[in-house]
């Protein structure tokens, strides 16, 4: 036997063992998780009073609102006492107010 036969045999045995174990494991493509409807609704929900009260003074000013928030466009209508800020009661009244489409139905 030549001096290269043993290392070559060992190399082939290891390569064969590794390829056998690799082929034994079935590759399963990753699947997208099923979205949780409650979590999805929470993610799509408008931010609440505490999230909008950026300076945490207990009021929402127009400066606290992101420009794309619907309340930024209707701030004057939601500010029932006309003090240029919304307290929690005014905010809750705005949030609980039915939209025009819902009111027509």
Automatic annotation (TrEMBL):
Signal sequence bounds: 1-24
Database matches in InterPro entries: EF-hand-dom_pair, EF_Hand_1_Ca_BS
Lineage: superkingdom: Bacteria
Keywords annotated in UniProt: Signal
Keyword Phosphoprotein: no
Keyword Signal: yes
Name this polypeptide is given: EF-hand domain-containing protein
Organism: Arenimonas soli
Lineage, highest ranks first: Bacteria, Pseudomonadati, Pseudomonadota, Gammaproteobacteria, Lysobacterales
